[in-house]
Amino acid sequence: MEMINEGKQPACVQACPAEARLFGDILDPQSEISKKIASSRTELLMPNKGTKPNFFVVVSK
């Protein structure tokens, strides 16, 4: 949480060589993650497990 409070991305997002991870506030319609979810076909990962925070997977076209 310290990195996030400092405005930095989590280490897993920074370290991903494929830039396949996004992190952000899905309630903010201007955030990169909200725009990606709105413009892509996504699925919520394990919704039956109540995953929180939410973890979305972008489905390949």
UniProtKB/TrEMBL annotation:
Gene3D superfamilies: 3.30.70.20. It comes from the Bacteria. One of its GO terms (molecular function) is 4 iron, 4 sulfur cluster binding. The keyword Iron applies. Keywords: 4Fe-4S, Iron, Iron-sulfur, Metal-binding. InterPro entries: ET_IronSulfur_Cluster-Binding (IPR050954). PANTHER family: PROTEIN NRFC, PROTEIN NRFC HOMOLOG. This is 4Fe-4S ferredoxin-type domain-containing protein.
